[in-house]
Amino acid sequence: IAKFSALGNIAYRTGKKLVWDGVKFTNDEEANKYLIPSYREPWKLPTV
Fold first, then answer.
1. Omega before 42 cis (within 30°)?
2. Fewer CB near the terminus (10 Å): N or C of the chain?
3. What is the pLDDT of residue 47?
4. Which ranges of the chain have pLDDT less than 50?
């Protein structure tokens, strides 16, 4: 349920109808930026 709430919030923020494939939005790269959390300095997660 939390996932769908987050997806709804992203759609609201972008103001667009979004298509979700279970991993990412297929029709909007701007919306995909909201899927990756941003951390404050000095916290960083390593990228693989």
1. yes
2. C
3. 75
4. none
